Amino acid sequence: MKISNDVAITGCLALTLFFFSAKSQTKAVLFDGTIIAGYVDHGAFINCSGPSIKFSKKPYTVLLGLLPSLRIKEDKVAAGAPKNTALTPNLGFGLTTAFRHVALQVPLYYNPKTAVKNGEWNVGLGLGYKF
Questions:
Q1: Which of 98, 97, 92 is nearest to 68 (CA)?
Q2: Residue 54, domain extent
Q3: 20: in domain
Q4: So what's the pLDDT on residue 1?
Q5: Is residue 12 part of a domain?
Q6: Is 46 exposed, middle or buried (0-12, 13-18, 19+ CB in 10 A)?
Q7: Could you tell me if residue 118 is inside a domain?
Q8: Residue at 16 is within a domain
């Protein structure tokens, strides 16, 4: 399930422009009460919506901002080689849309450069609940 970065970013921008043009209420929020679980880069994540810009037009809400997260992914390494822990804190960036209490999220997470891989952005997909 590899989503093209260009498609994800274009979709985020199109949705943001729609909400700017559709007489919606726009404000900055620190926390919106949304919990999300999803898939990214052959692993899982659990996050909440952090500092973001909120566009709302009842019953829809769109958040564009930071996503404090816990990523769950096991390293594939040779036997006896050191590896990372399976649960790591991470900060993502992305778009969260909510319709009443159901939330859908397209997060972007960065995996830094290592000795064997270049650094890259990974696009994910999540589903959650808005309190």
A1: 92
A2: 27-130
A3: no
A4: 44
A5: no
A6: middle
A7: yes
A8: no
pLDDT tens sequence across 35-91: 999 999 889 999 998 899 998 888 889 899 999 999 998 877 778 888 878 899 999
Whole-number Å distance between alpha carbons of 19 and 26: 9
Cis peptide leading into residue 89 (ω within 30°): no
Give the residue carrying structure tokens 């926390």: 31
**Measured between alpha carbons, how far is 97 from 105 in angstroms, rounded to an integer?**
6
Amino acid at 85: T
Tracing tokens 């970065």 back to the chain, one arrives at 5
**Which residues are 70's β-sheet partners?**
46, 89
Q: How many domains does the structure of the chain reveal?
A: 1
Q: Which amino acid belongs to residue 29?
A: V
Query: In Å, what is the CA distance from 33 to each residue of 46, 76, 86?
Result: 13, 34, 26
